[in-house]
Amino acid sequence: MSGLQREQNASAALFERELELTTAEQAVRRLCGHVTEGRNRLGGLLLYSGEAGLGKTALLTEVRRFAAEVCRCTVLFARGSESARSVPFHVVRQLLQPALAPLAPAARQELLSGWYDIAGPALGISPPSGTMQDPQGVRDGIDWLVTQLALKGEPVVLVIDDAHWADAESLSWLTAFTVRLREMPLLVVLAYRPDELPDHTPAFRDLVASRAARPVELRALTPEAVAGLTHAAFGGRPDPAFCREVWAVTAGNPYEAVELIAKAQDRNLKPIEESAPLLRDLGATARGSGLVARLERLGPAVTRFAWAAAVLGTEISPILAANLAGMGPAQAAQCADRLREARILAGAVDLEFVHPLIATAVYSAIPPAARTAMHGQAAWAVAEAGHGSAAASRHLLEVHPDHDSDLVEKLRAAAREHLAVGAPDAARRCLERALHEPPPEEERAAVLYELACTALLTSPSATVNHLRTALGLPHLTDDLRIDATYRLSQAYAHNNQLQEAARVVAEQAERTPPGPGRMRLQAAHFLWRGIQVEEEDSHGRSRQMSELADDLPGRDNSERAMLALRAFDGVIRGEDALAVADRVDRALLDGELAPGMGWTNTEWGFEIPSVLGISCAYTDRLDQAQRLFRGAVRAFEIAGWSGAHLSFAHDFLGLVHRRRGDLCEAERSLREGLRLASRLGPGLPMHWDGFCLLIETLLSRGRVDEAQAIADEHSFHAPYSPAIVLPDAACLAGRLLLARGRTKEAIVELEAAGRRLDERGRNNVLWAPWAFDLADAILPEDPERARALADQAVQHGYRFGTDTAIGESLRRAAAVHEPEEALRRLDQAVTHLRRSPCKFEFAAALVDHGVALRRAGRPAEAADRLREGLDLARECSADGLVTTAQAELDAGAFAKAEPRV
């Protein structure tokens, strides 16, 4: 299409928009490229930036037309709304509901697959389940849907006008989704006002400000372009002075120029120099107070109807507007006609304002008292129309506080609906507004508790404040007090305040009578104390746990939780693994998690099932650990909890693979866990287990440089996490230093780790093998101490008693002993590790034994060990061990050796 043809066919607002339209055409054509033509389909992001009235809407309309009619794309369109910014997923629903509406329910379910129940409520195609949805899971479900639409049909162009007014939930999804645009045939086109970017989504601000985005900035029209508009409207040759005044009055704003020309035509002004002075007063009626005055001249009924439309905002139902304006259908229809004639409203089935500037001016003109009253009426009308509490909540938020307990209940109901669609921030706004009403005193604590729950994962500090306030109020039932205390301890823990977490549950446990509630608080106390790296009186806490838990049969979930925590304590302390396994069995019900203690249960949290799985992983019960953590992944995916919870599940599943010796699978799972965690922001506590396990796995594979790269990426250095990490962070740091040849630094790190662990009786040689690494480091300078350290650690391995712990202890200790003693220990290590499910440790023992046998002049036996170790090391993907075994085989010329009989 030539520039002249486009100018003739496009609306007047597209004057001087050649560059902007060409940019859009090029982006759409890249999207629609075909491999047969030697071009790939390339998606992307196209941004248009401009102040109000510069023609962004007209430009996007032309982009939509070109994409749909010329390039046969599927075009999805939405518009942000100043009045609907508080409605979660408002823009997402506008975009996607038209694509879903023609489909039968079964087809929608098939398209969304497993995401239907998770994202369906946010999309408005299925009712909320009543349970709290994870916002990240909802965003992932929307990702899935948009991806399916883009890959299964024609290329998709997704267009959003007034993106600066998009709701936070839609904008958060869109911002995160843009990183995937190059992966699929999908083009996103956004238009926004640069000075009105929202504060609620800083990531969107960063996106549009980045150098990669490079928005196309719309400018005001030149005098020549405005003259062209005037010529096109009036015909003939308007006086240059008249055209120049149209430009001066409107400052080249396309919307205002078009409106001014239209009003001049309505007044039958002649486009001559003598009419130019009249244009300034006429232009004032297109905006602000002038527009309001023009509206008032249409009469009180029309004004009242316009007010009702402004309060309702977008997609205005004529019936709702009539009810809100207090008039019948016939009068409402007349008022709507008058407003269309005045170019204030447009539309037939649903009404909308001709331009957002008009909507803003009309809404601002409503007297504050009348506006508040109308919002209250609108909330009632929306609820009566069957749209639900969540839809009514945006109006309830605008009503003045008035001690209305019914309004409090409506806001609490709206908050529950918002949580059920994955919009905790919207729920928070409702509950904060409910507190300002305020609620009846007997309900205030409950509202604070609900408010705290909305912020538990996103703002632990806010959760702490709300729950502390709630616990200080009267009218708190015992059950709610216990729940609030448990949640408060979780919030402290998520905020890395483990001592506070332990203290608050201990205080509340003291005032709670014996029973399940008290034991629940005691369990939380032992949990938060037991995972502290710098715990005071670790021995005393362990004795208390032993006295309380060792004889519990596991009759209810409080007892099962206590048994689970005692089992984990036994693992960390390196106690008898058989006793640990017995406690695990009593904490489970027929080998499975008991009802009420599942992964997504909010009463206990995921920590209790996690420590059970970890205990199984370190006591050679890898099949059971794998069942538990695979169950965690499934449970979190089904529930749509694809943020921190799913990240932890992949980390712990990676732990199982690492213990089993499936190093490649462990690495895959751990990288997936870190990928999920990275979406929630950098430097969070949840990263520690993931990257520490990944570093350990890479070291086991012999990939020291990659391990160091992960350490650098995640700032792995002191101070370490205040919570226990798998493996122990300081021990791992020492091992990494040792692997890089920085022996003196490694010794300092390992000495400090050893003192800390020894003082607290944490002697598990698999979780924290500091003694063996330190013995290796000091062997050249102090062989006697090195052997003493290693032998003490072997005793700890025997105390724990698993084949893996004993075999690995013997193998590591052999490295610091004389050859004859080393051979004996390595032979024993191989015997134990052959019975172990941990293949990597077995492979390492075989190779170490083979090396020792070759040096002892026993080539045939050495060859057997090395070949078996080599095969197993390959199976484990332990590249470094493979290299060692192969080098030893090559060096020994074993092919010439006589085979053993």
TrEMBL record:
It comes from Streptomyces stramineus. It comes from the Bacteria. Residues 26-189 form the Orc1-like AAA ATPase domain. Keywords: ATP-binding, Nucleotide-binding. It holds the Pfam family AAA_16. The keyword ATP-binding applies. SUPFAM superfamilies: P-loop containing nucleoside triphosphate hydrolases (SSF52540), TPR-like (SSF48452). This is AAA family ATPase. The keyword Thylakoid does not apply.
